[in-house]
Amino acid sequence: MANEIMSQYGEIDETHEILQRYTRLYMNDKHSDVIIVVDDNKIPAHKLILSASSSYFHALFSNGLVETSKNEIKLQVPLDAFKTILKYIYTGRISFVNLNVGQITDLFDLANMYQFDSLKGAISKYLNHTISIENCHSILHFSNLYSLESLRNDCLNFIDNNAIDFLNQETLKEIPQDMLCDLLKRDTFYVPEIDIFNAMKIWHEANPNADIKVILSEIRWSFISMNEMIKIVVPSKILDLTQMWALFEKYHDSSTPARCAPTSSISSLREVNIATAEHGAKRISGERWNGLFEQNVAHHSINYPGNGITIQLGKISLINHIKFSLYSENNFSYRVYTSIDGTKFDSLVDYSTYSCRSWQFLYFPTRYVQYIRLIGMRSTDDYFYVNEFEAMQKEKVPEIVDGLVKPAINVATTERGAVVLEGGGANKMLNSNLDEFTCHDINNGSIIVQLGQPYHIGSFRLLLGNKLSSSSGNSFYIETSLDKSTWEMAVDKRNESLASSWHQFEFAARPVIFIKITGTQGTLNIFSCTQFECPSSVQK
Question: Chain-centre distance of CA 246, in angstroms?
Fold first, then answer.
C-alpha cells in the first residue's frame, strides 16, 4: 500500500504547463533580452530559450562572438520561415498544411542551419505523403538539393508510375533540362517514345534557349516507327532535316533496351487469365472482333496479314503461358510476338513450318508483356482464325527444349487438340473409355495420330488389344513425323509378340506432331489399341 501511495503521490508532472509558459513568451517582448532583425522586422526573443533549443544559437550567444553582448542581431533569412522556426522553438509545433513547396524549402533551409534534425525528418515525411503531379518535380529538385535519398526515390517512383500524366502537366515547361534528361534516362520512365518527343517539343517551345539536341538524345529512337518519323517528327522542324536524320540513324540500330513499367504498376496475378475485358484487355487488330474473350472469332487474311490479331492487355503483365483455340478443323501455321510498348515486337513462338490444330498450349520463360500478336502463316482456306484466348502466369511450367514444350502430361487427348487421322474407331483410343478402341487391318494402312501442336516427345504408352481380345500376339512399329511425309522410327516391335496389356516405350526425344502406329500382327488380322499416351504418364 505504501508503495502505491508513493507511486501515486511521490512526483508531479507539469510538463504541459511549462510548455504553455514558454508558448506565451513567443513574439512577446516581456523579459526579452535580444531582438532579431529580419528584413527590417524586429522580433523579440530570449537568448536562454534560443540557446537551449539550438546548438547554432548556443554557439552564437556563448562563444565570445560579437553577438554574445549585442541585444540586436540581424539575420539574412526568409522572414516567414524564420517566424515559423521561432514558433517551433517556443511551442514545439509546426503545421505544414498551408505551406507550398517553396515555403517548405525555406523552412528546411533554416532547420538545417539551426540543426533541428527532427524537424528535417518531419518535413521529409510530410513531402513524401503530399507528392502529386503538380509538385513532384519541385519535390524531386528539393530532394536532390539536400541529398534526401529516400524522398528522392519515392518521388522518382511516383513519376515512373504516373509518367504519362507527368508529361502532360502544364508545369512540365518549368522543369530544368538536366532533370528531364535524368528522368528520360530511366528504363522505368514508361511512356511511348513518340509521346516523349511530342512533350519535349512543347517543352522546347517554352525553353527556346535550351539545347534541345541534348534532350532528344535521350529518346530511344529505335522504338519510334518510320511512319511516326515521317508524319510527326520530321514535320515538327524541331531540328533541321540533317540533324534529325543524324539522330535517328545514330540511335535506330542501337541496343538500347525498351522502357519497362515500374514493378508497382505491373500485374503479377498468378493462375488468372488476364486476357479478359474484366482485366482491361482488348483487341487492337484482327477482323470481326466481338470477343476472343467471348468465344467469337477473330481472323485475318493469310495473304494480307497486316498486324495480324493483336491483343492489348490491360497493363504490363508477367506471363509465361498463352492458350488459344484455332477455329475449325483446319491446320494452321503461325507465329506469336510480344511487346511491352506496342512498337517493338519480339518473337515468342515460331510454328510457321508446323501444322497446328485446335487448342494451343504455349509456355515460355516468364516475361513482361502488354501486347500479344498472332500472325497466321499458312492455312487450308487462306484465313487464320482464333476463337478463344487466354494469357497468364502459372506457378509451374513444363520444360522447353529447342522452343518446343516437353510435356509432363499426356497430350494425346482430344482436350489437348489431338485427333486420329486414320484408323477404325477414330479418336476412341484417345479417350478414357476402356470399352472402346482404335484399329486397322494388318497389311492395310496404319493408325495415324496428329497432336495439337509440335511437342518434344521421348516416350509412348499403349494399352494394346481390346476387351474382346486377350491375344498375346501384338507386333507393330511406331514412327514419328513433323510433316506426315518424312517418318522416323521410334519404336520397333515387329519381331516381338506383346500381350494385350499396357506397354511403355522410350526413345531418343525429338520434335513430334504426327505419330504412325503400324501393326504387323494382331487378333483376327486386326491390330487394335485401346489407350494411347504421349508421353507416357508413368515414369520408369
Answer: 32
